[in-house]
Amino acid sequence: MIILKTYRKRNFFKVQNISFIGLGAMGTPMALNLLKKKYNLFLYDINTKNYKKFYKSKAKICNNYTDLSSKSDVFISMLPDGKALTNLVLGKNGIINFIKKDSTFIDCSSVDYETTLKISDAFTKNSIKFIDAPVSGGVSGAEQATLTIMVGGKKNTYNDAKEILSVLGKNIIYVGKSGSGQIVKACNNMMLGINMIGVSEAFTLASKYGISQKTFFEISSKSSGSSWAMLNHLPIKGIIKTAAANNRFKPGYAAKLILKDLSIAKQMAKKISLNIFMGKKAFDLYNSFCRKDKNNLDYSAIIKSLFKK
Ligand code: NAD
Asked: Which residues of the chain form beta strands (DSSP E)?
């Protein structure tokens, strides 16, 4: 009996009900993958238009935190940034006041690690387990459940959450203490932003010198200049299936989100007086791009800003 009780308490195998918060470009396919695996989902998003893809499913759409929290003891959030996470958890009548003790909150959003530490502390004080579990792999990775997920927090909570995270991704990697998943994510996305600018510059340069972009892709994708950004988010139309360029740069991964990630990396570097020359340059370029009302285009649309007027 005692053994069974411990098993039930520590293992997520029995979890059926999950509350999922934030049904945007990433959250929707992630939630749909959980539904496919027969979890009962309770959904919440401040933008009710995002419920559309769930109307025909068994998922329960919730209008308030009481409905969202009464039947679940696992929560997953997929929000734009640290501000949204703070509002959700610690805002006026925040969700922290509705979640039962011993529940687990998994934040898959990309947020600054200082916000993560604040949220983690607040949950710990309320006896709620918390891990930061930001993801990488883009919308296609979310759809195909091939995301890489980097986890910070208590190892026991990670072990318990692994079964659910394995429904969302392929590589689920424990990093270390709370916030460390977010540190890895910010560093990774700094490389992604720098790579995307490099890909954009190289494709534009080759094309202006008369090289077909298809031929350039054929060669460089098999050469030393290749990168994940090029192979998955090529800023050129009609060469790869997963390019936002095929769809007038509809995100995908919005420029305002990479700007947020570059800003997090910049702040992290500033705090330890580290020069990140390329990271800072990438931040400046995306910053001026977003200021020109391009925030809601895919981040690969940065290629548009390279042409001399
Ligand atoms: P998104 O803007 O499409 O979705 C965010 C959703 O959160 C929106 O539907 C919004 O209405 C909702 N939301 C905001 N505040 C809320 C609140 N208080 N309560 C409930 N819902 C709220 O963003 P996305 O592209 O899905 O990205 C989500 C997170 O994942 C971001 O942190 C992003 O940086 C990260 N990420 C994105 C990608 C990508 O390719 N899009 C890849 C990896 C990681």
From this structure: 17-21, 40-44, 60-61, 74-77, 104-107, 129-132, 135-136, 147-153, 169-176
- 47-84: per-residue pLDDT in tens? 999 999 999 999 999 999 999 999 999 999 999 999 99
How many Å apart are CA 291 and CA 36, to the nearest integer? Answer: 40
Question: Which strand (E) or helix (H) includes residue 67?
Answer: helix 65-70
Give the C-alpha separation, 145 to 137, whole Å: 9
Position 309 confidence tier, pLDDT thresholds 50, 70, 90:
low
How remote is the CA of residue 31 from the centroid of ligand 1, in Å?
13
**Tokens at residue 41, please?**
């989902």
109 CA to centre of ligand 1 in angstroms: 7
- Are residues 24 and 84 in contact, defined by beta-carbon separation less than 8 angstroms? no
- Enter the pTM of the model: 0.94
184-233: per-residue pLDDT in tens? 999 999 999 999 999 999 999 999 999 999 999 999 999 999 999 999 99
Catalytic residues: 185
The C-alpha atoms of residue 160 and residue 285 are separated, in whole angstroms, by 41
Going from the Cα of 129 to the center of ligand 1, the distance in angstroms, rounded, reads 22
Distant-in-sequence, close-in-space partners of 195: CB < 8 Å, separation ≥ 6: 227, 228, 229, 230
Instruction: Check: CB of residue 122 under 8 Å from CB of residue 89.
Output: yes
CA distance 136 to 190: 12
The pocket around ligand 1, CB under 6 angstroms, is made up of: 21-27, 44-47, 50, 78-81, 84, 87-88, 109-110, 135-136, 138-139, 252-253, 257
